[in-house]
Amino acid sequence: MKIVQSTCNYCALDCNMDFYVENDRIVKVLPTKGYPVNDGFCCIKGLSLDKQQTVVKSSPLPKIRQADGQMKEVSWEEGFSHVADKLKELQAKYGQESVAGISTGQLTVEEFALFGHVMRNYLKTNVDGNTRLCMATAVVAHKQSYGFDAPGYTLKDLELSDTIIFVGANPVVAHPILWKRVKMNQDPDRKVIVIDPRKSETAMNADYWYPVRGKGDLVLFYTLANVLIEKGYIDSSYIEAHTEKFEEFKEFVKKFTLEEALENTGLSGGQILELAELIHRGKRVSFWWTMGVNQGYEAVRTAQAIINLALMTGNIGRPGTGANSITGQCNAMGSRAYSNTAVFYGGGDFTNPARRARIAEVLGVDESRLAENPLLPTIRLLRESTRAESRASGSSVPIPATAGLTTRHLPGR
Ligand code: SF4
């Protein structure tokens, strides 16, 4: 029986699995031993991959629909030429931006690079990552806080942290291998804290659960920041050396008081004080969030508020610490690192010469080949295509000018 090592793509952990293949069918799946992410472990979703009776073919040929409606198998060369000709034909007929691409977090980095390169730099049109639809908020928070988009952690940090704070994350169910790292943490003082309106499976297994009210998380983090500052539970030398505009931030959070906490967050002043003490007593505090924040109310600000807590207490840049956004798909970060996110190049500004030079170097092309301007994000791409479709069909149904949600800003922001 042949063993093919590959990955489970059901979640962001990207566990490595040994697929046992017989007569082109997967008959058994076992988690790969010795692989650094899952080392012989996986969850039931990965173990069930053999239940799909998947047929494995090393290189299926592409198929092209013929004039009579039938599909015909062709060589890869013919398949590539056909797609290239069609794309060029569309651009010649309807304009350069009539063709656009959206990539997915299931691709490998090399596939991202090639796809983005062809769309951006050869077809000179728009491409965006599907990060836009799940955690673009974390992307923007990273960019605004650090200047580039990337969470700086490894799974090992879960084993080294003595105060692990999950916000809007349920790793027991959604990222089980990550939760296993929490269980591997041998620190006798280790505390797991969950901030989540729901009593999730992770909350049930935590040492502390703070059932913040829906939409109350941002105010909770500002209130926490205010309490930490008032009590002197901050790392002044870290703030001085590595941050900007702390005095403005300090002034801003003054209005978020314990007295008003219950009304704004659903948590009592005493609970928030307890949380502040836990953060203060922790020597290696780590914050972990996922879609409960990224797809939540005022998500960019909330992610930034979490990052600010890590920065102001010096819980960043050391093993077992960090403000750590957990991605939803196995290679969402690959898309962002290479730069299939429409408005960035290599996780940073489009105009940043260092990032442009690096992208050109990685691709092995001259910098003049690179796209010059930020591209359209997915939502605008879809809106534009709907407008075009509406125009083409002569529909008189008005398409709204904005398809986005509106947000109610906090007073004074
Ligand atoms: S933890 Fe995620 S990647 Fe690993 S087996 Fe389960 S679903 Fe698949």
Question: Order of strands across the widest beta sheet?
Answer: 10-9-8-11-12
Shape assignment: globular
Low-confidence stretches: 397-413
Architecture of the largest domain in CATH? Answer: 3-Layer(aba) Sandwich
CA-CA gap between termini: 63 Å
What helical percentage do the residues reach?
A: 40-55%
Q: Hetero groups bound? A: iron/sulfur cluster
For the record, the count of structural domains works out to: 4
CATH superfamily of the largest domain: Dimethylsulfoxide Reductase, domain 2
Question: How many DSSP E strands?
Answer: 14
Radius of gyration: 24 Å
Largest sheet: 5 strands, parallel
CATH topology group of the largest domain: Dimethylsulfoxide Reductase, domain 2
By CATH reckoning, the class of the largest domain would read Alpha Beta
Q: State mean pLDDT (0 to 100 scale).
A: 88
Beta-strand content estimate: 5-15%
Which structural class should the secondary elements be placed in?
Answer: alpha/beta
**Number of contiguous helices:** 18
What does this structure look like?
The protein is of the alpha/beta class and 413 residues long. It has 4 domains: 2-52, N-terminal domain of TfIIb (Single Sheet); 101-130 and 329-375, no CATH class; 136-146 and 153-312, Dimethylsulfoxide Reductase, domain 2 (3-Layer(aba) Sandwich), CATH 3.40.228; 383-413, no CATH class. Helices cover 41% and strands 15% of the residues. The protein contains 18 helices and 14 strands. It has helices at 44-47, 76-94, 109-122, 136-146, 156-160, 171-174, 176-184, 201-204, 217-230, 236-242, 246-253, 261-265, 269-281, 291-294, 299-312, 332-338, 353-363, 378-393; strands at residues 2-7, 16-22, 25-31, 63-65, 71-73, 100-103, 126-129, 163-167, 191-195, 208-210, 285-289, 322-325, 344-345, 348-349. The strands form 5 sheets. It has a 5-stranded parallel beta sheet with strand order 10-9-8-11-12. The chain has a 3-stranded antiparallel beta sheet with strand order 1-2-3, with no helix packed on it. The model is unreliable at 397-413 (pLDDT under 50). Residues 8, 10-11, 13-15, 38, 42-43, 45-46, 176-177 line the site of iron/sulfur cluster (SF4).
